[in-house]
Structure formats: structure tokens, C-alpha cells
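Lab manual, section 2.4: Encoding a predicted structure.

Procedure: take the sequence of the chain (681 residues), apply the prediction step described in section 2.3, and record the output as C-alpha cells. A sample record is shown.
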Amino acid sequence: MDKFKRYTITAALPYANGPKHIGHLAGAYIPADLYVRYLRLSGKDVVFVCGSDEHGTAIPNQAMKEGTTPQAIIDKYHQLNKESFQKLDISFDIYHRTSEPIHHQTAQDFFKVLDQKKVFTIETSEQYYDADAQTFLADRYIVGTCPKCSFEGAYGDQCEKCGTALSPNELINPKSTLTGNKPILKETKHWYLPMDRYEDWLKEWILKGHQHDWRANVYGQCKSWIDGGLAARAITRDLDWGIDVPAEGAEGKKLYVWFDAPIGYISATKQWAIDQGKDWQLYWKDQDTKLVHFIGKDNIVFHCIIFPIMLHAHGDYILPENVPANEFMNLEGDKMSTSRGWSIEMHEYLEDFPDKVDELRYYLTAIAPETADSEFTWKDYQARVNNELVAILGNFVNRVMVLMHKYFEGKVTGASTGIKDPTLHKEISTAYDELGASFENYKFRQAQQNMMEVARLGNRYLTEQEPWKTFKEDPEATREVLHECLYIIGHLATLMQPFLPGTAQKLFRMLNLKSAYRFDEAFVFEDGHTLQQPELLFQKIEDETIEQQIQKLNAKKASMETSATTPELNPAKAAINYDQFSAMDIRVGTILAAEKVAKTQKLLKLTIDTGLDQRTVVSGIAEHYEPEAIIGQQVSILVNLEPREIKGIMSQGMILMAENAEGKLSFVSPIAAMNNGSTVR
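Recorded output:
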């Protein structure tokens, strides 16, 4: 165990723009939880913080897709993800939100300190602007044709079809998602973090200081960034959604999400400290505190280079001692992706397997992508559960508990303070040492294997001693063997607490002990101690269950691919106020006559009884309706539209039509007959 008095452990703040999948769970949240539980079981002072990242363009972009507001989106997915983490036994001390006032204040105060120290530069550049919406466009509000694969729905930052990272000016025929119009380039001013000024400091701090204790993949990515030369990075954006920039001349600008999000760790700690009566500054400003970030590899640059530059430039904060980032976990031979339907969302797993939380925790730890990408397959999940949790760990515990009840009515007799066999005692002590060393080096797969070795040890010992054969001739020998096994089970329950917290509690309950033990805390089976009735710790997973999950996954992907090939609806237009809407006079009318307009393919000349009068309207519906088929059709007509001459015909109004993504038109009509002239409102 290292020298630090306290520990601040962070897990990457997930975007509150949708549910999170088990790849995210394996990448950051389970490793962080394992480490935190280990620290607590070692008696350490630790705060474990996380929360929803609720700013940036991803939030309003999702709101547009779902036809709702950004606030509704963050409320919905913050709660969904928070509940999923709770059910998966991720033991955050606080799961906060970057939309909270305390975070806005903390982020703005951080900005002000850097601004007062003249850390930032201010630069003017050209960015895409939607003239009709009167707003600068974030990358995700620009769509066009991908220059790599010709996909017509590529975003300004990435093509979702081929995965190519893009910039808006690379798109062919860019359009605003707000109005559908082609954006223009317009000058705008932003604040920048000049990262190039900190290259020498980063070389000293990372390349020299952490060459041997950071994971090779993390160190290698940092070295590549630094060796390639760092550039100034904008920390402000022209957005409506986010934290106001507290600087003169920054009206209408927000802090860029990558700047405010990591500060969310600090604001979350502040709120936790308020709730618990603690001093938050000890956990962020005291050199006796160890700061560790748990993230996926796509966040390495933010947590190893950008955020440390911010902390260093500020001057009051400690720096991360380690950032044990994981690689990616793939799914059934392909990259996991919610947008492509190739994922297992946390809440989906919990819906299908509400009683198999520890099984998922175990499997994701066993295949954790600590140094290279790994792969989740349903059949391997089944094999690990059946062959390891059921056949090794569960089998050992069940055999011992059943024999204790069969031969001794579940009662311990005789004084016993621990394992008597010196070889067993040494092996158990070694398991604790090796598990601790694995945790200290962030080798969580190995730590879980250290725990499972105790289960294997118990099985070997029980099989070798064969107490069921000695009971008739020497019941005392049987009793001693089973008592030794009870202590092995107790140590197994203690060691499994980080990995299988629910199972550990069940096991302590079966042993009739208290619900948790620290690693240095002794437990004793005294004379007369009575065990609870045995329960199966794990259930075998059948082939049928796995086949259902594979079919469900493939069906989900097929459904997403089908929807991806369906043309998208036109984007929403710029907002209007109520007065603008109420100025439109829309009435129910009946088509009295219809004929094609000469020398045109799309136009029909309609005579319509509006209840107010009979008038002529020219409408572009000839490719969708035959003239004679619509005589007598009731329609909705905008009657106060200024008259307009079309092909020599004075058109006095507009017929309202619905148009789907394929361009098919349909009349907007009352479902029951209405008097001509009835108002539509």
C-alpha cells in the first residue's frame, strides 16, 4: 500500500444523451469500483465521484431527434444511467450532474482564475453560421456528404457510416440541421488554451515522471501527442446550451464541454463534502491525496494532457498519480455501437438478467481490455459463468455447506480461531498478498484470478481430504476438515467483496457472520456457531437463454440498419412565436373542380369552396393525385396567404399537405366532415 492519506477516485462522466452499454461499464466503471472497494476494504479514506456530463452539442442534438427539450433529455438519461449503475453495484459516493448550480459556479471560477493569470489567448476565426436561425453551428448541427464514403448524412465532426473523423469544411454540400439551409462562413471570437506552451512541462511530468508506472498504452498515446506537437485548443463555443463564459465580450458563448466536464469531478466532490460535512479541498489540493482517473482510451488526451494542463496552470490542485485507461471491448466480432444497434445497454441486461449482476461483473472483469481490445461473446459469458462461478466457486461452497448440515446439523463445535493446517494458512496469506499487489498495479483481471485461486484451493483440499469417507469411522476428522473449509469460505467471501459484492453478502449471511469484513479484520467460528441453510450462489445458464440473446442482438442490429436506410425527415425550422402562428388563417374547404396546368408535370388548378368564397389555388400535387379523384375532397387551406401568379394563373391560398421522408404527399383533412370555413387551430 502506498504512502497517501486519502484517495480521490473518478470515473469518466457519461454523456446524458442516451443509455450506456456494457462496453462503457467494462472500460471505466467496473475497474474504478473494484479499486475503490479494495481501498475501502484496506481501511483507506476514499471518495469515489462520477455523474452525468450534461452539456455539449450531443444533448440538444438528441433532443431534436426525440422531439423534446435538452432539459428533458438530461433528466431522462441521468436517471436511467444512475439507476443502472446502482443496480450493478457501482458504489459511487456521489453521482452528480454538471447542470447543477454548484458545477456552473465551480467551472466559471476555474475559468476566471486562468483568465486572470492570462493563460488564455483570444483568436478570431471563420465558422459556419445559419443566417435564418441566426446562430453559429456546432459540428453536429451540420450535415452533408462524406468525402470518404459519399454517405449523405455525415455530421460535421464524423461520418457515422464509415467512422471517418471530419471537420465541417470537409463536407460536400453542407447543410444546417436547424433549417436545412446552406450555412455561410462568418467570423467569431473564442478563448483558447495554448497547450503548446506546456509541452516542456508535460515532457518532464509524463515522459520522465510516469514512464514506468503508467500503462504502456496510456503512456504511448501521451508520448505520441506530445512528440507530434500540441496546438492551442478552443475552450469556448457559440452555443445556446452550456455554461456561460464569465468574461467581457463573451456574451452568448458557452464553455466548451471538454473544459467544463472534468471540472465536474471537483464540483461533485464539493457537493459530497457539503452532504457529508467534509472539507473538499483536502481531496483536491492536499499533496497527501492520491488522484486516480478511470477512463476508456478515447478519453486519454483529456485526462492525461488537457485537464492536467488546466490543473497545473491553475496552481492550487494536485495532479493525477495514475490514469489506468482501458482499451475497447468489442461485441461478437464487431465494434460496439449503440447507433448501429450493435450493443448491450446496461439497462437492457438488467431487464433480462436482474438476478445476474455479479455474473456480469465477473465476466467483464475476466475479459477486461486492460492492455488490448477484448471481446464479449454470449457463449463465452455462458462458459465463464457455468465453468468457473458455478462449477468452481459455487460448487465448493455448496459441497461444504451441505456436508456441514448433513453431518453436524449446521453447527460448529469446539474452539477454532482460524485455519490450522500450516500449508493452507500460508496459501491463504499468499492470496491476500498477491491480490493486494495486483490491485496496487491496477491489474484487476489478475486480482480476480487471485480470488478464484482460493476457490480452487478449497476444491482441491476438499477433494483430497474426502471427509464424506471418514465420517463413520472418525467424525472428528470430518469435522476438522469441514471447519478448515468454512474458514476458506470466509476468506473467499472477504476476498470476493470487490468483484462479487452481492454474492459476498449472501455468503456471509449463509455463514451467519456480519455482512462485510475488511481485509485486516478477523472472523471466528466460535463453539456453537450455527450456519444458515445453504443456497446455490449461482445458477447454470442454459443454451436456450444464450441463443435468445444472440437472436435479440442480431434483430436489434437489423432494425437499426433498416431505419438507417430510410430517408430522414426534413430538419425542424427556426422557432416562431405564437403571434406569428395565430396570424395564419387556416380553414376547411372542399375541392369543387381540378385540372392539370398546361405544360407542367406537378401543378393542378383547383377551385375550392372555403366557406368564405370560391377561389382558385395552384398546387404542386399532380404527381400524387389524378384531378378527377379529388373532387369533393375536404382540405385545409391557408386563406390569408398573399395571392401569387403561377404559370399565368392567380393562386389565392395554399393547400396544406403532409410529406413523409420518401416525399409522398397526403392531404391534411378533418377525419369527420366539417362545414366549409371551419377554422383550423
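Check your result against the sample. Residues 378-568 form a domain with the Isoleucyl-tRNA Synthetase; Domain 1 fold (CATH 1.10.730.10).
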